[in-house]
């Protein structure tokens, strides 16, 4: 992957002094994952560009067990994008190659350290979990002019749609040390597969590199949570410094970012309560929680004797581990342990483990699926699993205007692939009911506004 930094500051060759890299030399540094090559494609007084080329050794990643730490398929260590994208490896490379500049030291041109320079950054390519919208929400508040080129999944199969990869160009007049700190923190925030262990030292790094800008960034909470991989104890530790005047409970700290953006802990509880009420009303004894996440609904289900068998499924193995821990499954009485089961799986594929249940709850899940894959989801739930009752909730995009901190035209969460109006949800749900011989009832969830409705909307499907 390639990172370039250019300036038209006069003389532009001052960039070499700031970065402690001579324009006439090519330098190679070693890291455990490969090699860093540093060179200047151009170096004139009018414009100077330095390039950092990170050459990752894919075989070395596997041998050293330093491959991606994501939640993908079994061969992910062997088949992945790590050698080709800017990720946490790039942050390590920036810190190693430009450590002196990041620390604000320049022996020969000390006056340049605090001078705001016209800088242009190019990144090829950057995986953006959350897409263009979230990428812009990270960089634009820091003063960058952001230009992006999105890449297709496969240029030979355009119907597959766009990938999550972008070639990114950033322009700003900032101190070089600040630009390097922004890149160091925000590149891993955009990509969840960090190759290193996340511990307390990462909190220290985040606070150090984020000094002077992170406290005032509108996406401060998302940045903190993603950088620390949503680890509750570490995010609490970071928030204690970043938000000293905020009263934040432990449970709120461990909510997913989308629930923080909406300020919707109460709303999320309302969703779960309404869902629980509908499940109880259905008379179901065997219940599915599809996309169960960290098990908040499962905890409520376990308290109700009506539910004799409870199955929670999620695509994220890590979320299931958190759910297992929060539910204290290992310490439950034997009869309670026999009532509940957690499995890893996808809602896009037929799964015989989902058969034979009376009801299924799918709370704030469908908006995380690509629209092109909704048909597969529909078949999995309504044709193959086919419970008597299906409860689905999803955001109401009309209500977004009520959130003052949410920019117009953006979704509530960076991982949402779509958000529907009430009419769009009713059209989709009605078509599903007709096709698979269900009937559907629509219910509001959350505080209701006369004009835009409620923040969430619910469809309760029952077999005719």
Automatic annotation (TrEMBL):
<keyword id="KW-0808">Transferase</keyword>
<feature type="domain" description="Hen1 N-terminal">
    <location>
        <begin position="1"/>
        <end position="242"/>
    </location>
</feature>
<dbReference type="InterPro" id="IPR038546">
    <property type="entry name" value="Hen1_N_sf"/>
</dbReference>
<dbReference type="GO" id="GO:0003723">
    <property type="term" value="F:RNA binding"/>
</dbReference>
<dbReference type="InterPro" id="IPR024026">
    <property type="entry name" value="3'-RNA_MeTfrase_Hen1_bac"/>
</dbReference>
<keyword id="KW-0949">S-adenosyl-L-methionine</keyword>
<dbReference type="InterPro" id="IPR026610">
    <property type="entry name" value="Hen1"/>
</dbReference>
<dbReference type="GO" id="GO:0031047">
    <property type="term" value="P:regulatory ncRNA-mediated gene silencing"/>
</dbReference>
<dbReference type="GO" id="GO:0001510">
    <property type="term" value="P:RNA methylation"/>
</dbReference>
<dbReference type="GO" id="GO:0090486">
    <property type="term" value="F:small RNA 2'-O-methyltransferase activity"/>
</dbReference>
<dbReference type="Pfam" id="PF13489">
    <property type="entry name" value="Methyltransf_23"/>
</dbReference>
<keyword id="KW-0479">Metal-binding</keyword>
<dbReference type="InterPro" id="IPR029063">
    <property type="entry name" value="SAM-dependent_MTases_sf"/>
</dbReference>
<keyword id="KW-0460">Magnesium</keyword>
<keyword id="KW-0943">RNA-mediated gene silencing</keyword>
<keyword id="KW-0489">Methyltransferase</keyword>
<comment type="similarity">
    <text>Belongs to the methyltransferase superfamily. HEN1 family.</text>
</comment>
<dbReference type="InterPro" id="IPR024740">
    <property type="entry name" value="Hen1_N"/>
</dbReference>
<dbReference type="Pfam" id="PF12623">
    <property type="entry name" value="Hen1_L"/>
</dbReference>
<protein>
    <recommendedName>
        <fullName>Small RNA 2'-O-methyltransferase</fullName>
        <ecNumber>2.1.1.386</ecNumber>
    </recommendedName>
</protein>
<dbReference type="GO" id="GO:0046872">
    <property type="term" value="F:metal ion binding"/>
</dbReference>
<keyword id="KW-0694">RNA-binding</keyword>
């Amino acid at each position: 992957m390639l990172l370039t930094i250019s300036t038209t500051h006069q003389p532009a060759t001052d960039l070499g002094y700031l970065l402690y890299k001579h324009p006439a030399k090519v330098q190679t540094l070693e890291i455990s994952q490969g090699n860093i090559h540093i060179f200047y494609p151009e170096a004139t007084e009018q414009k100077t560009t330095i390039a950092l080329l990170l050459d990752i050794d894919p075989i070395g990643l596997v041998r050293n067990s330093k491959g991606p730490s994501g939640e993908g398929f079994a061969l992910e260590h062997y088949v992945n994008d790590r050698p080709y994208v800017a990720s946490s490896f790039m942050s390590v490379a920036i810190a190693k190659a430009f450590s002196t500049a990041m620390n604000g030291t320049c022996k020969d041109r000390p006056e340049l350290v605090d001078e705001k320079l016209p800088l242009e950054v190019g990144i090829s390519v950057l995986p953006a979990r959350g897409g263009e919208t979230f990428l812009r929400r990270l960089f634009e508040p820091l003063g960058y002019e952001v230009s992006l080129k999105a890449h297709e999944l496969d240029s030979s199969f355009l119907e597959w749609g766009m990938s999550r990869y972008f070639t990114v160009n950033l322009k700003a007049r900032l101190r070089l040390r600040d630009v390097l700190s922004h890149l160091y923190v925000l590149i891993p925030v955009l990509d969840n597969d960090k190759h290193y262990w996340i511990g307390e030292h990462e909190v220290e790094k985040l606070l150090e590199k984020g000094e002077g800008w992170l406290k005032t960034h509108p996406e401060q909470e998302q940045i903190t949570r993603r950088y620390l991989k949503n680890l509750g104890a570490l995010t609490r530790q970071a928030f204690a410094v970043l938000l000293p005047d905020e009263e934040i409970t432990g449970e709120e700290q461990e909510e997913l970012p989308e629930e923080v953006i909406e300020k919707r802990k109460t709303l999320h509880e309302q969703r779960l309560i309404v869902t629980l009420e509908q499940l109880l009303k259905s008379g179901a004894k065997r219940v599915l929680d599809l996309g169960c996440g960290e098990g908040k609904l499962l905890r409520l289900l376990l308290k109700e004797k009506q539910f004799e068998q409870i199955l929670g499924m999620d695509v994220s193995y890590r979320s299931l581990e958190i759910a297992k821990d929060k539910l204290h499954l290992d310490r439950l009485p034997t009869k309670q342990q026999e009532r509940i089961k957690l499995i890893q799986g996808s809602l896009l594929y037929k799964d015989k483990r989902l058969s034979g249940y009376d009801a299924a709850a799918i709370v704030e899940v469908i908006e995380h699926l690509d629209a092109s894959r909704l048909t597969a989801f529909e078949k999995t739930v309504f044709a193959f699993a086919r419970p008597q009752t299906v409860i689905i909730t999803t955001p109401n995009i009309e209500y977004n205007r009520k959130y003052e901190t949410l920019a117009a035209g953006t979704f509530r969460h960076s991982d949402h692939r779509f958000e529907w109006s009430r009419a769009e949800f009713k059209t989709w749900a009605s078509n599903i009911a007709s096709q698979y011989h269900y009937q559907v009832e629509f219910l509001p969830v959350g505080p209701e506004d006369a004009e835009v409705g409620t923040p969430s909307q619910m469809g309760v499907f029952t077999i005719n």
